[in-house]
Amino acid sequence: MPISSTIYLFNQQVVDASPDRKGVYGLYDEDLHPIYYGMSDVSIRDRLQSHLDGNEGPCTQRAHACNWEQCSNPAARERELLTEYQLAYGRLPRCNSRMP
User: Fold this and answer.
1) Which ranges of the chain have pLDDT less than 50?
2) Which of 16, 28, 35, 71 is the 20 to 30 A CA-CA neighbour of 1?
């Protein structure tokens, strides 16, 4: 099941309001199609900030929207999201280079 939380514009205000807790997050293009699924064992906010700042490369820095989900096992949930996407589309989201 995809991340079911509200999808927000990917900007500084939204990143500042995102949780400082562990979990998973999605980044989306202008059509709200997933381009990246990621996780953090510490802070979703820190990971989103890193993408917004361009520290994770230009692919995710150009994301248009984002959402997140707090969870107790982010690594397992990220694998679930990527596996589900790969089964549906035959590939990973365009900014995910490999399955963790």
Assistant:
1) none
2) 16
